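pasting for ref
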Amino acid sequence: LDLAMGLESFGPYGNEFAAPVFDDTFRVAKAERIGKDGQTLRLALSIGQHGPLVVAVRFRHGESPDPEPGSHWHMVYSLAVNRFRGEVSLQVLVHHLWPTENPA
């Protein structure tokens, strides 16, 4: 959360100053479709087998297959600060994702 808040403070981001993006492999703990049209994918992710969970969102996921719990996916993502009903939390915004082998 501290890193996301720090990155946010460097904004605003735009065409000439793109927001930073990252990539890593995550284990999917949970995946569900949300929203009226079911096009948004909400994930609970961890790094490694027993890492802490973080909430991730993939907007406009469309007809792509949903990750299965326990599977590993490589993701390109950005960090965001989610402010909702007085709560502040880290949110991962997924730009691209694809299945990968278990990183062992």
